Amino acid sequence: MPDTTIRSNSDVVLIGAGIMSATLGLILKELQPELTIDIYERLDNAAAESSDAWNNAGTGHSAFCELNYTPEAEDGTISPKKAISIAESFELSRQFWSYLVQQEKISSPEHFIKRIPHISFVWGDENVAYLKKRFEALQANPLFAEMIYSTDFSELEKWMPLVMEGREKNLSVAATSMGIGTDVNFGVLTRDMFSHLAQMEGVNLHFHCEVRDLKQRDDKSWRIKITDLATDQKRKAYTKFVFIGAGGGSLPLLEKADIPEGKGFGGFPVSGQWLKCTNPEVIAQHESKVYGKASVGSPPMSVPHIDSRMINGEKQLLFGPFAGFSTRFLKNGSYSDLPKSIQLDNIVPMVIAGVKNIPLTKYLIDQVRQSPEDRIEALKEYVPGAKYDDWVIERAGQRVQVIKKDEKEGGKLEFGTEVITSQDGTLSVLLGASPGASTAVSIMLDVISRCFKDEVKTPEWQAKFKAMIPSYGQELNDNPELLEKIREETATVLKLK
Which reaction(s) are listed as its catalytic activity (predicted)? Predict the structure, then answer.
C-alpha cells in the first residue's frame, strides 16, 4: 500500500490550542515574523479545555483575594512573596493584552475583561486575626497599596450584600477588597488570539488532530506523529522546537518525548463542579469575586468562592468549585489516562506523594460523596439565604496536579505550574494548574528565555519585548511610579475605567 501520510515542516509546533500556546505563538511571531508555526488541537475548537470560562477555576488570578497564596507559617508570620510574584505576572499579562488591542490584533477588550472587586472574606476570631495580618503584609507593597480592610458589618454589607444578608451581626467577620480586580474570560481571549494567529503568514491551525507520539532525531529536530480524528488521516510533522501546552494531556506527551529532564514526573487528577445560579434576581445582587479559606487538606483549585462572571455575554453567578476524583487527565479525556501515565521512573514519587497526602484523598472522597443538599449547605456559608431551587450543578474542568521526585522526601505533590525544558532547548512542556492562565505571559517569557537563549540577548528582541511589555526587565513592586503609569495605561486601553 502506498504511504498516504501527510508530512509538514515548520520552525515551531505548538500542541494544544489553549491560552499558553496562543500567548507563545503571538509573542514568537512578534519577535520573529518569518517563523512558521503549526498548532495541533485534538478538539474542534480553541480553548475548549482548561482555558474555557466554565472550566477555569479562577479568572483574573492576581493574588488580590486568593488566600492560599499567603499561608500562615508555623511561627504566625505571613510572607507576601508568592502573592507579589503572581501580581507582578498578572501585570505583565495586562500589558501584553493592551499591546494586542493597540496593534488591532485582538478587538473589543470588553468582551474578555472587565473590572470587578476582588474580596477576601472570613469569619471567626482566628480567621479574622489571620486576615488582618495578611492585609498588613500585603498592603505595605505598592502592588497591593489600594487594598482596604474592614470588620464593620454595615460596610461589608455594601461590599457584598448577598454574602452578608441573613448573617448574624454579632459574628466576628472581616474582609479585604481590591477595587481594581478584574474578571477575565480566557476562553474568549484565547479564541480571539488564535483568530489573529490563524490569519498570519506561516501559521497553520489544525483541529481534530491528536498528537500520538514524538521523537527527537539525531539532528536534534523532532518528528511528531499525529492522527486526524475526523478522517483517521495520519500525519507527520517535523520541527526544530516543540511546546506542549495541552493541559492535563501534557504529561503523557512528556513521557513519550522521553527526555531526561522529564523523568520522575507524575500527575494527580482532580475534577471539579460548580453550583450555578439560575435566578436572575439573585445574580443581580452580587458584583464581586469573594474568596474564603480552603478546607484543611483541600487542593488550591477548591478554594471556595462566590464568583460573578461574564460568560458568553451574560452575567453568571458561580459557587465552588467542588472537587472530585477522576482518572481522566482532560475533561474530554479517557479513564485510562492515569493508569497509562504510571511508569517505572515515576511510580515511587507517585506512591510516596499519595501516602503523604492522605488528607487530600480523604477530602476528595468526602467531596465525591456529597449530595446536592450538602453542596447547598456549603454554599450557605457564603450565601446564607441560598435556596435549593435557585442553583444547579455545572461540570467544571479537569486539573492534573504535578507529582515530582524530591531528594529529601522521595516524592512531592505540587499545586503550581511546572515548566520542563530539554537541555538543548528544543522542547518545553507545561504541567500543573493554578495560577495558570492569568500568568501565561510570564510563563511564556520564561519558556522563550530558556529555549531561545541567543536570540533573547539581541538588541532587536530586547526592543520588541519592551514594545510589547513596557515594564519588561523591571519589578513593578519596586517602582511605584512605573506601576501607577502602567496600570493607568492598561486600564485605559482595556476599557477598565
Answer: (S)-malate + a quinone = a quinol + oxaloacetate
pLDDT recorded at residue 431: 87
Cis preceding-peptide flag for 304 (omega within 30 of 0):
no
Domain count of the fold of the chain: 1
Domain assignment of residue 487, yes or no: no
Where is pLDDT greater, at 299 or 427?
427
Q: In sequence order, which residues have a C-beta less than 8 Å from that of residue 304 and are 6 or more positions away?
A: 291, 292, 293, 294, 319, 320, 378, 381, 382
Give yes or no for a contact between 106 and 192, defined as CB atoms under 8 angstroms apart: yes
Average confidence score pLDDT of the chain:
88
Amino acid at 314: E
The CATH number of residue 393's host domain is 3.50.50.60
| Residue-wise burial string across 284-308, b where 16 or more C-beta atoms lie within 10 A, e elsewhere | ebbebbbbbbbbeebbbbbbbbbbb
DSSP state of 71: P
Q: How far apart are CA 463 and CA 470, in angstroms?
A: 10
pLDDT at 360: 66
In-domain check, residue 492? no
Instruction: Tell me: cis bond preceding 435? Omega within 30 of 0 counts.
Output: yes
* Torsion angles phi and psi, residue 152, rounded to 5: -80, 115
Is residue 47 in some structural domain? yes
Q: What is the pLDDT of residues 369-421, one digit of tens each?
A: 677 788 888 899 899 999 999 999 887 777 777 677 776 666 766 767 889 99
Phi, psi of 137 (to 5 degrees): -70, -35
Alpha-carbon Rg for the chain in angstroms: 23
Under DSSP, the state recorded for 72 is B
Pairing of β 417-421 and β 427-432: antiparallel
Amino acid 354: pLDDT = 65
Strand-strand pairing, 6-15 and 234-244? parallel
pLDDT, tens only, 316-359: 999 987 777 777 767 777 777 776 777 767 666 666 766 666 66
Q: What is the pLDDT of residue 342?
A: 72
Cβ neighbours around 170 below 10 Å, total: 7
Asked if the structure places residue 494 within a domain, the reply is: no
The Cα angle at residue 25 between residues 252 and 116, in degrees rounded to 5:
95
Place of cell 512578534: 30
Q: How many CA atoms lie within 13 A of 455 on its CB side?
A: 16
Bridge partners of residue 332, in order along the sequence? none
Nearest alpha-carbon partner for 156 in 63, 288, 280, 276: 288
Give the pLDDT score at 2.
61
Question: Which cell numbers in the block locate residue 108?
Answer: 473589543
The parent domain of residue 279 ranges over 6-482
Reported confidence tier of residue 221, pLDDT bands at 50, 70, 90: very high
